[in-house]
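Record type: monomer structure entry
Structure origin: computed from sequence
Chain ID: A
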Amino acid sequence: MTTPELALLIVAGGIGAGLRFLVDRAVSGARSAQAFPVGILLVNVSGSFALGLIAGLGDLVPEPWLSALGIGLLGGFTTFSTVSVDSARFAREGRRDWAWLNLLGTFGACIVAASTGLVLGGIRLG
């Protein structure tokens, strides 16, 4: 990877993290620690779909854009660590129902979203 390609990846990662913050705030507002993290769920599901779509497109997305978009932008956008912390916090607070829903619901929805993106990305028109 060249220095300009690395710089592109780093900038894309920063943009992705900023977008995650904006989407979460737009969906959840300044949510209390007691609220279910719908914004982060939306971020992770939409990011999984987008990565599946990009991966499904294969050679249509050339390097370094594949790395910048997949690793940088979407890597910065999605967040498993937040899901983990929120789930652990819910469990610690006695909300094991929300902990499991957050953990397994996010995982399942992201698998479906990524698979859908892969299928749609793999469809070649013409």
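Annotation 1: The chain is about 80% helix and 0% strand.
Annotation 2: The helical segments are 3-28, 38-57, 65-77, 80-92, 96-122.
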